[in-house]
């Protein structure tokens, strides 16, 4: 009886705490997103796609090569690999023909593009819904402005949907707390929430400015790791889409 009562109290406390945090979140004015690992596939997802694509064309994934080159265009990555590996025909290793290389590159690029953007097919719509709900939006990324602009072109949204954009073209990069300087000129820290996936860069940059942090968990950075860093369970999400849905729902409370 006592154990059941104790469990009910714990559940009630958890619901109350989660509801309280949801209400705190809905009062935020600026939602800032990390790019890679948050709005774009995380490291483990990208490396997983590399492995699948390489296996799909009959090659064995070389994890050292993948980790060294995972952020390069598929074409730049696969050509040296094809040249090195060659093809096995009747027990003999022969060089890949130009036709084979072209076919493999085309297949790989389609594979990555389809999987990446189908997995985030609703992202443009959700970003617009978040904006329509009354939130201001921002971006902080250590990637270049060109990388950010390419991403925006791919999801067919204009960059001016974001009130604040900080890219990695200068020497100020996460976890340097100064990445938030532009945002803090317009908003108070209590009115900002930062959505990211890395406890080493994203989380550190946020807490250095007393800014609330939302974690997007992944295989390299699981929920337990964020909880050990003091992030409440209700502030950890499996995808950015689920976070956006939660913020839109919180606005209705």
Written overview of the protein:
The protein has 253 residues and is α/β, with parallel strands linked by helices. The chain folds into 2 domains: 25-40 and 122-251, Rossmann fold, CATH 3.40.50; 44-119. It contains 11 helices and 8 strands. It has a 6-stranded parallel β-sheet with strand order 5-4-1-6-7-8. It has a two-stranded antiparallel ribbon with strand order 2-3. A hairpin with a 2-residue loop joins strand 2 (87-89) and strand 3 (92-94). Helix 1 (2-26) crosses helix 11 (240-251), helix 2 packs antiparallel against helix 5 (98-119) and helix 4 packs across helix 5. The longest helix is centred in the first third of the chain and has 25 residues, at 2-26. It is elongated, with a radius of gyration of 22 Å. Residues 1-19 have low confidence and may be disordered.
Structural features:
six-stranded parallel sheet, elongated, 51% helix, disordered N terminus, Rossmann fold, two-stranded antiparallel sheet, alpha/beta, 2 domains
Question: Could you give the topology of this structure?
Answer:
Blueprint: H1 2-26, E1 30-34, H2 43-56, H3 63-69, H4 74-85, E2 87-89, E3 92-94, H5 98-119, H6 123-132, E4 136-140, H7 145-154, E5 164-166, H8 181-184, E6 192-196, H9 202-207, E7 212-216, H10 223-228, E8 236-237, H11 240-251
Helix pairs in contact: 1-11, 2-5, 4-5, 6-11
Task: Please give a quick description of this structure.
The protein is an alpha/beta fold and 253 residues long. It folds into 2 domains: 25-40 and 122-251, Rossmann fold, CATH 3.40.50; 44-119.
């Amino acid at each position: 009886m006592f154990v059941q009562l104790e469990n009910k109290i714990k559940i009630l406390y958890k619901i109350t705490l989660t509801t309280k945090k949801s209400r705190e979140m809905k009062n935020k004015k600026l939602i800032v997103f990390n790019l890679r690992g948050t709005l774009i596939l995380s490291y483990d997802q990208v490396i997983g796609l590399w492995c699948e694509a390489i296996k799909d064309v009959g090659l064995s994934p070389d994890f050292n090569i993948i980790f060294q080159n995972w952020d390069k265009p598929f074409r730049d990555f696969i050509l040296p690999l094809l040249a090195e590996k060659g093809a096995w025909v009747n027990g003999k290793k022969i060089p890949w023909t130009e036709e084979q290389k072209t076919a493999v590159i085309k297949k790989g690029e389609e594979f990555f593009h389809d999987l990446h953007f189908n997995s985030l097919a609703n992202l443009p719509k959700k970003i617009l819904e978040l904006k329509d709900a009354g939130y201001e939006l921002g971006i902080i990324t250590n990637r270049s402005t060109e990388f950010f602009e390419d991403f925006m072109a791919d999801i067919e949204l204009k960059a001016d949907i974001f009130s604040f954009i900080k890219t990695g073209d200068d020497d100020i990069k996460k976890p340097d707390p100064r990445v938030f300087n532009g945002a803090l000129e317009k908003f108070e820290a209590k009115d900002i929430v930062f959505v990211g996936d890395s406890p080493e860069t994203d989380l550190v940059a946020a807490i250095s400015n007393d800014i609330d942090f939302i974690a997007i968990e992944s295989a390299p950075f699981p929920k337990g790791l964020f909880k050990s860093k003091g992030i409440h369970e209700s502030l950890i999400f499996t995808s950015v889409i689920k976070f956006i849905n939660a913020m839109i729902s919180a606005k209705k409370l």
